[in-house]
Structures are given as C-alpha cells and as structure tokens.
Amino acid sequence: MLERGKKMNVTAKRIWIPLCAIGFGLAFAITGCAKRAVTTQGAGATTPPSKVEQPAPSAGAARTQPSVRERALEEGRARSLEERTREQVAREIARGAGPGAGMPGAGMAGAAGMETGLMLIHFEFDKYTLSSESRDLLKKNAEWLRKNSTAKVLIEGHADERGTNEYNMALGEKRAHSARQYFIELGIPADRLSTISFGEERPLDPRHNEEAWTKNRRDAFTSLGR
Q1: Cα separation of 33 and 38, whole Å?
Q2: Hey, which residues does 222 pair with through a beta bridge?
Q3: What domains does the chain contain, in order, with CATH numbers?
C-alpha cells in the first residue's frame, strides 16, 4: 500500500507541474496582449488639433472708420468755428456796419473794387507773407482810405479748400493781419481797420483745381461805412 501511495504522488506531481506551467504561460500571454493593445491604442491616437487664434485687428484697420465719438467731436469743432465766425461778424456790424454787412454776399462788390475801389490781394499756397505785387495793391488801397478819411474797412482773410477747416481759418486770419499791419505802416489808423477770417468757406471760384485755388487765396476789403 505504501509503495502504491508513493507512485500516486509522483504521478500527481507529473500532471500538476505541466498544468501549472501552462496556466502561468496563458496568464502571461493574456497580460502581454492587453498591455500591447493599450500601448498600440495610445501610440495610434491622434492629438486633437490646437485652437488656432485669429490675429487681432491692427490699430490701423480698427481706425479705418471713424468712431461715433470722433464724428461727434469733428462736428462740434465745425459748429464752434461757424459760431466764432458769426460772433466776429456780429462784432464788426456792431462797430458801425450797415444792415447785412459781413453776412454772406455782403460787401463782395466793394471787395472786388467795383464799389469802393479797394482791390483784392492774393497769396502763395500756404503763405501769409505779402508779395511785392500785393504791397503795390495795398498802397493803392491806402490812397483810397486817405481820400475817404472817415471810412472803416473790414479785411477778410480767405484760403483755398486744401487743409482742415481749423487750419484754414487760422491761415485766413494771418493773411488779414498781414494786410492790416501793412496799412498801419502806410499811416492808416489802426482803429479804422478790422479783420475777420472766413477760411475756405467763401471761395470766389468753387471749382477744385489750381486756377480756382489761386483765386481763393486772397484778402478782400469791405467798407463798413463812411
């Protein structure tokens, strides 16, 4: 009996050892396949594309169209210039001009030399200095003022349409003051001479070319009464 038991134990060992080896092999194979599957899936997965940022609009592009605030400021400046011009004309009228003097169309015949004998003078582009020709014409205008010793004159400074309204108003004022100062040097009393600037607002020639601009860069002279 003892001998038979030993044989059975040896036989059982011979059977279980191969079975255990097979079991371990299967378990290892299954684990390896699972890892490879996970690794393969990780390697083959594509990275989602990153979000492409749109370039921010440039400052120049953003300012192509003026904002509501900028348009309002520009309109406000234009109204302010118009109001200052009206106030200046009103002051000149209060100094002794007749009804309608200094208003649109008033005094244009006199400024052209058809009514008072006072002649226009002209200026170079973007200049307010007097040319020799302008000085000769102002001397003739001064003779008329001496003959009409009670007359007062409104000197109107004008510009062509190029440039901003504000710049042209300032340029017209400088042109008017240049003529006034020369009159004073010629002996005309300062209290007989007043100035106003109309900038580009009253062109003699409404066209948009060099010939018209040459005509519009001028000083005109309007008698305010005798």
Answers
A1: 9
A2: 154
A3: 110-226 (3.30.1330.60)
Residue 225 has pLDDT above 80, yes or no: no
pLDDT tens for residues 141-164? 999 999 999 999 999 999 999 999
Supply the mean pLDDT for the chain: 73
Tell me if the pTM is above 0.90.
Answer: no
How high is the pLDDT of residue 140? 96
Q: What is the pLDDT of residue 35?
A: 45
CB within 8 Å of 136: residues ≥ 6 apart: none
Q: Do the strands 153-158 and 121-122 form a parallel or antiparallel pair, or are they unpaired?
A: unpaired
Q: Which two tokens stand for residue 31?
A: 């684990």
E strand spans, 141-208: 153-158, 193-199
Decide: residue 183, CB within 10 A, 0-12 exposed, 13-18 middle, 19+ buried: buried
Non-local (6+) Cβ contacts of 144 within 8 A are 116, 117, 118
pLDDT digits (tens, 9 = 90+) for 89-144: 445 444 443 333 333 333 333 333 334 679 999 999 999 999 999 999 999 999 99
For 164, half-sphere exposure in the C-beta direction (CA atoms, 13 angstrom radius) is 8
Give CA separation, 5 vs 1, 16, 18, 26, 165, in Å.
6, 17, 21, 32, 125
* Alpha carbons 157 and 147: distance in angstroms, whole number: 24
Give the span between the Cα atoms of 42 and 40, in whole angstroms: 5
Who contacts 181 (Cβ-Cβ below 8 Å, separation ≥6)?
none
User: Beta-carbon neighbour count of residue 200 at 10 Å?
Assistant: 21
